[in-house]
Amino acid sequence: MDQRGIGVLHPGAMGAAVARQAATGGSPVYWLPAGRGPATIGRAAEAGLIPVPDLAAMAGACWLIVSVCPPAAAREVADLVAATAFTGIYLDANAISPQHAREIAASLSGAQVVDGGIVGPPPRRTGATTLYLSGPGEAAAEVARVFAATALTPAVLGGPVGQASALKLAFASYNKLSYVLAAQAAGLAAAHGVLPDLLELTARKLPETPLGDPARLVTAAPRAWRWGPEMREIAEACQAVGLSPDLAVGAEHLLARWAHHKDTPDRPLAELLADLADPQQG
Question: Three-state secondary structure along 194-227?
């Protein structure tokens, strides 16, 4: 087959938005619908993605395959691509530890693996979302060219595979832990009957934080199913360099109590805080 295309595995909310940006350059963008649910199928159709029957067909049609999936699935997805003997560029754009990024690069020995870290919301407007890249220089530059004129701003860091993942997780450890800390503080205040007072106080003192703006805090709940495994990656990355993983491990445990809100956004804050109570203390 003519390897002109770009493949995206698997288009959730972020992946579908990335695929839409990749398509702006005129390349056909493919995806694999087998085993995917109605929501994913709808996102793929809206983004104009072209279905293929299996990974072998995708590998034969594409010079670039982009993996955007939950962190826990990143290695499995890479292994499945490796089994096709794909020889193009493989962009792992998942929130994984530097060590896991290097393991994926080693498993795809026939391909050029570029490490990617997406910082920001699903890309829809210019300047809001950045794709950090590291790994083989020319391959990283090729990926950057795909997104150069899109709403997903590429930034080549240089350095080996693992650098982009390290930057992504370092940022996420600060940004997402702020939501977890806000949830913990709000839960403590609610348990003592002073939540309205806490929210009034933080609205004055810390207005740009998730606790100062509770509307931001509730947006974390439907993303908790994905953030929890990301915290596990952060914990492993910290441990690998001699830092304590305890903060990230605790955050993973808290986020697990919101994981069932994946398909139920906009839940009331009171309901979300009630979910945080330790069931063994009830």
Answer: CHHHHHHHHHHHCCCCCCCCHHHHHHHHHHHHHH
Torsion sign over Cα 180, 186, 188, 191: negative
Q: Is the pLDDT of residue 278 over 90?
A: no
Distance, in Å, from the CA atom of 22 to the CA atom of 8, rounded to the nearest integer, reads 9
Residue located via tokens 């029957």: 53
- Token digits for 30? 């493919």
φ/ψ region of 66 (left if φ > 0, alpha if ψ in -120 to 50, else beta) reads: beta
The whole-number pLDDT of residue 220 equals: 96
Question: Given the DSSP bridges, would you call strands 129-134 and 152-156 parallel, antiparallel or unpaired?
Answer: parallel
Burial 182-198 (b: 16+ CB within 10 A, else e): bbbbbbebbeeeebeeb
Backbone angles phi, psi at 156, to 5 degrees: -85, 120
What residues pair up with 116 in beta bridges, in sequence order? 133
Contacts of 219 (CB under 8 A, 6+ apart): 265
3-state secondary structure of 129: strand
Residue 244 has pLDDT above 50, yes or no: yes
The neighbouring-strand residues paired with 51 are 31
Residue with tokens 């350095």: 159
Residues facing 9 on adjacent strands: 67
- β partners of residue 90: 65, 113
- Band (pLDDT 50/70/90 cuts) for residue 132 is very high
State both tokens at 65.
Answer: 């395959």
How far does Cα 23 stand from its chain's mean position? 20
Taken as a whole, the chain contains a residue count of 282
At 208-219, the pLDDT tens digits run: 999 999 999 999
Candidates 144, 132, 139; CA nearest to 108 is 139
241 token code pair: 């360099």
